[in-house]
Design a protein that fits this description.
The structure holds 2 protein chains of 2 kinds.
Chain A lengths: L11 E9 L4 H11 L4 E8 L5 E9 L5 H10 L3 E7 L4 E12 L2 H13 L3 E5 L3 E8 L1 H12 L3 E6 L3 E4 L3 H8 L5
Antiparallel strand pairs in A: 1-3, 1-4, 2-3, 5-7, 5-8, 5-9, 6-7
Chain B lengths: L1 E3 H11 L4 E5 L5 H7 L5 E4 L3 H15 L3 E5 L3 H5 L1 H9 L4 E7 L15 H5 L5 E4 L6 H13 L5 E7 H5 L1 E3 L5 H6 L12 H13 L3 E5 L1 H5 L3 H11 L2 E4 L24 H9 L2 E5 L5 H4 L10 E6 L13 E4 L2 H17 L8 H13 L15 H11 L5 E4 L3 H9 L8 E2 L10 H11 L5 E6 H7 L2 H7 L5 E6 L4 H10 L16 H7 L3 E5 L2 H13 L5 E6 L23 H4 L7
Parallel strand pairs in B: 2-3, 2-4, 4-5, 5-7, 6-7, 9-10, 9-11, 11-12, 12-13, 14-15, 14-16, 16-17, 17-19, 18-19
Antiparallel strand pairs in B: 1-8
Helix pairs in contact in B: 1-2, 1-7, 3-5, 3-19, 10-15, 12-15, 13-16, 17-18, 17-24
The chains are: A alpha+beta, B alpha/beta.
Chain lengths: 181, 582
């Protein structure tokens, strides 16, 4: 499952699915996608502020499948509590990338510079390779990955995106006053 | 009160109102079978776990109460997969209890271990592996709640052996606790008022309306409300395979079954309508034929409790999510209000006369057999129908005999027809008939089966004999896998591949007798009535009547797979006047 720059086109949808934190829930969600022939682009699962709930962030490629049917089928799963579709233009998205890149003494400096430009981090340096990390908007990670490719990527791992709705202006102001719950 | 998990399980089943369960014990479920000895629940010991599942379905079909099945782990659980899937496709409320290897052995490939919850995940509405005895009562309550509310369906509770053996402190969760424990499960019951008004308006405005009635009407126990709606608006009704009996076949507004083997008038009325009021129906491919050419001029009102059915196949103009009974009642009320405030119903008289023309010209028909020719299956069904005591429940397997049963029977009451619609499970009828008879012991239960179907689950007649469940089975025996044969004849240039069974093996009469049933063979038309009379007079054991019928008989009308409903094939005797069907 490779994440390519096509994700920046608006032909994908982000579903933020709040589920009961019980064993087998992820299998149910994944099984539903497989069984109904829907394609998952990326998937991230993690606990939320409420112990009883987890949030699954799913990026779906909906060129072939109507999103409405996916959402309705997902909602039929008993453990699914809430589904929000996040409009990429109205949400904040983040992802983490780890990459080990071929870098001998000669081009190590260039890779480090690249990481610095992107505000990434150097995690480990070896004789002929270097491991970097970058977190940020998935589009930024796409660009970084593309540039790293020139040096030779030994291993690369991305987390898949997580997202939350953007606060509107009023909510932002309230957030500043610390009133958002 | 302290008790074991097993005791808690049985007590919870009793508390949920379980009167009867179908099952077969084995290693991991053993602890649950001990407290069963002291329970009020009647247990019916099956000969194959698949039988237990279909019996539970048959029971649920005719009673409206959830069918309960209990089996052990591993192969027993995998044998339950077919009935679970069948119940899932046909929205049958059913609760299945499976044993599981002890918690310490899970994941070790232990004897009779399988990933039951994983295997059954996509064929249940919900399932759960219960890891603590303390959790059992809530899990059982959730299973019943989920199985019977919203769009009904099967649920499964998988219980490791040590969980059954461990002790727990009895606690019976309240309704509120159950609902709070399922924050993501809130079925919508009441339809949206604006949509209901819109539906009422459309119904009154349309000139060629049809009520397209599916199994959801029966699940919602909405037959009475439907009758009121149909009679108030004087709109014709089609009842799908899953809805036969939801509207009386004897009613002048009833057009019978639509779809692949529906009546010509039902198929054509849907095709030509300007408004389809879909009530608890799901636009199945067997109904629509080629979707792009299905009822092209029709607007759609779609009432269904499952939001995922709205727009899955055909985009509705008026989607109404809710319980069919409540929504139909609200629509009736809204129509009455509109009529009371001066609205009038559009003139449907031209439409009505077209429909009656189709009904007159294109009744169901078959060529009666000439003297000396083999029996016609339709003739047997008509004779069975005409001799059936009132309120007889008809249960069928899957194939030609199923279509003829639906076509030639007259269903005048709801819950008198049981069949496997969505999954099309051969072998369904014998065990489902047993379950139906257990649920409605006062009713005569006839299973109509094919010789192919019968050979899949016939051993459950041993269960029926030993448990004294006097069902009656009519085998329409044409020595073929008849429906497949029909397709090979029509679409594979009569190249018959692996469809011929055997004319005399097994000997169904001897087999029936060996299972403790009365066996009767019928070869000629004169023998039909005496055999049926004899079968109807026997009430102390199961009866099997082996009707030896013509192999070449085909089911008509037929919309070939992949074709549109305008391309339906009529019986050969009607084909010449097909042009009048528009």
């Amino acid at each position: 499952m490779s994440v390519t720059s096509t994700t920046s086109q608006p032909n994908y949808h982000i579903l933020s699915v709040l589920v009961q934190n019980r064993s087998g829930v992820l299998a149910r969600v994944a099984g539903l996608f497989a069984r109904r022939g829907y394609n998952i682009f990326s998937l991230a699962v993690a606990p939320t502020e409420d112990d009883a709930l987890s949030r699954i962030t799913i990026v779906v490629d909906v060129e072939s499948t109507p999103l409405e049917q996916i959402v309705k089928q997902l909602f039929k799963l008993i453990e699914v509590v809430k589904i929000s579709e996040l409009d990429p233009r109205r949400s904040v998205e983040r992802e983490l990338l780890l990459a080990t890149v071929r870098a001998t003494c000669d081009d190590r400096g260039q890779v480090v510079e690249l990481a610095n430009i992107f505000e990434g981090k150097i995690l480990a340096v070896g004789a002929d390779a270097i491991t970097v990390s970058l977190d940020g908007h998935p589009d930024k990670l796409d660009d970084f990955e593309e540039l790293l490719r020139g040096y030779g990527i030994v291993e690369l791992q991305r987390t898949g995106r997580v997202a939350l709705p953007k606060l509107d202006r009023e909510a932002r102001l309230r957030a500043v006053k610390g009133k958002v719950v | 009160m302290k008790m074991t998990g097993a005791q808690a399980l049985i007590k919870a089943l009793e508390m949920e109102g379980t009167e009867v369960m179908f099952g077969l014990p084995g290693g991991c479920i053993l602890p649950a079978y001990d407290p069963l000895l002291d329970s009020s629940i009647r247990h019916i010991l099956v000969r194959h776990e698949q039988g237990a599942g279909h019996m539970a379905e048959g029971y649920a079909h005719v009673t409206g109460r959830p069918g309960v099945a209990m089996v052990t782990s591993g192969p027993a659980a995998t044998n339950m997969v077919t009935p679970l899937c069948d119940a899932y496709m046909d929205s049958i409320p059913m609760v299945c209890i499976t044993g599981q290897v002890p918690t310490s052995a899970i994941g070790t490939d232990a004897f009779q271990e399988c990933d039951t919850v994983g295997i059954t995940r996509s064929v249940t509405k919900h399932n759960e592996l219960v890891m603590s005895a303390q959790d059992l009562p809530l899990a059982i309550r959730q299973a019943f709640h989920i199985a019977t509310t919203g769009r009904p369906g099967p649920t499964l509770i998988d219980i490791p052996k040590d969980v059954l053996q461990n002790s727990m402190e009895w606690h019976w969760p309240t309704d509120a606790e159950v609902i709070d424990s399922l924050p993501g499960y809130r079925p919508t019951m009441k339809g949206h008022p604006r949509m209901i008004k819109e539906a009422a308006r459309l119904i009154l405005e349309s000139e060629r309306p049809i009520l397209y009635v599916g199994g959801g009407v029966l699940k919602a126990r909405a037959a009475e409300a439907l009758l009121e709606l149909a009679e108030l608006t004087n709109i014709h009704v089609v009842t799908t395979l899953m809805a036969r009996g939801a509207f009386p076949d004897s009613h002048p507004l009833c057009l019978g079954m639509p779809g692949m083997h529906g009546t010509a008038s039902a198929i054509t009325a849907m095709q030509q309508s300007d408004l389809l009021v879909a009530l608890g129906a799901r636009f199945d491919d067997r109904i629509t034929g080629k979707v792009s050419s299905f009822a092209q001029q029709a607007k759609i009102i779609h009432v269904d409790i499952d939001p995922a059915e709205q727009g899955k196949v055909r985009r509705p103009d008026v989607p109404i999510v809710g319980d069919c009974r409540l929504v139909i009642e609200e629509i009736v009320k809204a129509i009455r209000e509109l009529l009371a405030t001066g609205s009038t119903q559009a003139d449907t008289s031209v439409w009505k006369s077209r429909i009656s023309g189709w009904r007159e010209q294109f009744p169901l028909s078959y060529e009666p057999s000439e003297p000396g020719e083999a029996l016609k299956p339709q003739f047997c069904l008509e004779a069975l129908r005409d001799s059936a005591p009132p309120d007889t429940i008809l249960v069928s397997g899957v194939g030609q005999h199923q279509m003829w049963s639906s076509q030639y029977w007259r269903f005048d009451k709801p819950y008198t027809w049981v069949n496997s619609g969505g999954l099309g499970t051969m072998g369904f009828s014998v065990p489902a008939a047993i379950g139906a008879k257990v649920g409605r012991p006062e009713a005569t239960v006839w299973a109509i089966d094919g010789d192919g179907c019968f050979q899949m689950t016939a051993q459950e007649l041993v269960t029926a004999s030993t448990e004294r469940i006097p069902v009656k089975v009519a085998i329409l025996n044409n020595s073929y896998l008849g429906m497949v044969r029909q397709w090979q004849e029509m679409f594979y240039e009569e190249r018959y591949s692996e469809v011929y069974l055997s004319p005399d093996t097994p000997d169904f009469v001897k087999w029936a007798e060996a299972m403790g049933c009365v066996g009767i063979r019928v070869d000629s038309p004169e023998e039909v009535q005496p055999a049926i009379d004899r079968a109807n007079s026997i009430d102390d054991r199961p009866v099997v009547v082996d009707f030896r019928v013509a192999a070449s008989e085909k089911v008509f009308p037929m919309v070939p797979a992949g074709f549109g409903n305008d391309d339906l094939l009529l019986p050969p005797s009607q084909m010449a006047r097909k042009e009048f069907l528009r």
